[in-house]
Predict the 3D structure of the following.
Amino acid sequence: MQSLLQELPEFLGYYNLYFLIEAALTTVALSAIGCIFGALAGFTIAILRHTCTWVLLLPRIFAVIFTEFFRRVPFLVTLMLCFFSFQLAGIDLSLFAVAAVSVALIASAFLAEIMRAGLESVHRNQWDAAASMNFGLIGTIVHIILPQAWKVILPPAFGFFVLFIKDTALASQIGVIELTYAGKVLNNKGFSAALVFGTVLFLYFAISYPLSRLGAYLERRLALSRHR
Amino acid sequence: MPYLDIAELCADYGSQRVLNRVSLTAEKGQMLGLIGPSGSGKSSLLRVLIGLLPPASGRVTFAGRAIDQRNPADLRHVRDRFAIVFQQFNLFQNMTVFDNVTIAPIKIKKRPKAEVAAEAEGLLAKVGLADKLKSYPDELSGGQQQRVAIARALALRPEVLLLDEVTASLDPELVSEVLDTIRLLASEGMTILVVSHEMAFIREVSSKVAFLAGGMVVETGDPRQIFDAPREARTRDFVSKILRH
């Protein structure tokens, strides 16, 4: 314990803190890209899978294959696949961009499935009633289906977001300096593992805790708006 | 030419034919009662008319215009003029009674909010629910929900109202309140196609009755003829069984 306290002033030096904060921001950025892009793409895929017009048959088949494929492949494999695919294609992307593409792919597939389950939780008769009144697909989803599907979508979606923040640590495998990788570097520099990874743990918590609070707040707000 | 002319209409659920060359007509202001055993195609006919089940073949002509339910423009046209009330009410669970009634006229028909609101309040008063504007569907009894569904359909100002077994999922003591509302609409000259197992009601209120079995129209006629002197053996068999119970 005493040695930890002795290490602390040096550990909290400007360059170390700067390095850790930059790594934490990389983790936040990768998580944000995954969550935001994944939510938008996942929503689009979920709606696409819900359509039945033959005009969208090919995109629908693509959506099913995409979701089923990327949900079943470990994140690390997707990451390596992206890394080497870009290399093979001669596309010169930064390591961060390669990691961002990977997290976006994985998050889209998982969130598409969460959102599909949400849409399907709303009884078919709600769609029928809306269609019989001339509501189009978008109008039906915005006014009738989503307000009922949120309560099914939100808990697993925010659960996924929090898990996902931790999964971005795998980006270190291709050399992206995110929080876990920064911890390893500082540990290799001679700082005690307990001190370094204790700080990393705290930073992960600081990033994910507000997100889970936001999820809880949204769930509460939706429940309240139902009986105002 | 009849107001609503259904000719040789066929429809399938998967590989099963549920409507087999159904031909029927209805005049403006008429109430056409559709009776028959379960699975006879009554509800399927209403679902084809409102475009929830695509027809396999046949023709539907409404007010002189041929309607092809597989054509999006025709579908919009017919859904703009027909309204359906479902057996399970199908009220939007996320909305209050008032919002259920006003959303389509405001969002789809683009009518002024104030005008729609006043009309919705009037309609809900007409079905005896003026005090339930702010309630949610799950706070109402089945009969109340069904009356909201009827008000919601009427707020669309339909030219034809389709009623799909609207009393079938109600407790017996709640049936009469819904039937009274339909009786009132019929007396006001609304064109109504009603599927019901309430034979006494069909007999009393309908201008014309069609008996369906196995996806086909077996017999049509005025209520007295169908119930008292059916021409076809299958109608006779059905009516005698119904009257025995």
